[in-house]
Amino acid sequence: MFLTQKEVLKTLNITRPTLLRWEEKGLISPIFLDSGHRRYRKEDIDRLTGSVMLSEAGSSSKKKCVIYSRVSTKKQQETGNLKRQTERLIEYANANNYHVLEVFEEVASGINENRRALQRLMKKVSKEDIEVVLAEYKDRIARFGYEYIERYCKSHKTNIECIEEQDEKDLNQEMVEDMISVITSFSARLYGQRGARKVKNQLNRLEKEETI
């Protein structure tokens, strides 16, 4: 059975831009007709919602949530870490009877305060139309200052729910990557792009020597 785009938007209670972003991220794959119109497999929609064609009553009984996924580097994104992280969070949401309104994904350092997806997330929280923000670990939201973000969310009737405790080895590795990113950024300002690449290569070499 296939659904039209209009039926999918109504079923998932999302906007068209959100659906198109999910398509770009590979969370759902439409079938294109000769006319150019999209059709969606019903089983794919059921997988995202964790139910069969939500009725208004069924939808209202679910907690409304959004998902925030983040990795620090393009390499992590290219190897599928970001996609797998999002999929784990969607599975958790389905298992806990949460209604996913939107997925925010980002490739950025955890100490970057100007993350666009995080800013869009905070704007949505301020409207007080969601109940839960799902993230894998606390430091996916912020490496430092997580408590302030958590307090802000609670002031707008939203809880942050982290589904796992991060392994210390993984945490240390990501902190090293974040520090390299910060140093590279400052080096680019001081010495230009060529100098920044040289500094980054030296830092990466030192990091590898430490792990040997």
TrEMBL record:
Question: What biological process terms from GO does the record include?
Answer: regulation of DNA-templated transcription
Q: Which GO terms describe its molecular function?
A: DNA binding; DNA strand exchange activity
Q: Which residues form the HTH merR-type domain?
A: 1-48
* Residue intervals of the Resolvase/invertase-type recombinase catalytic domain: 64-212
Keyword tags: DNA recombination, DNA-binding
User: So which domain of life are we looking at?
Assistant: Bacteria
Query: Which InterPro entries does this entry report, sorted A to Z?
Result: DNA-bd_dom_put_sf, IS607_transposase-like, MerR-type_HTH_dom, Resolv_N, Resolvase-like_N_sf, SSR_resolvase, Transpos_IS607
The name this protein carries in UniProt is: Uncharacterized protein
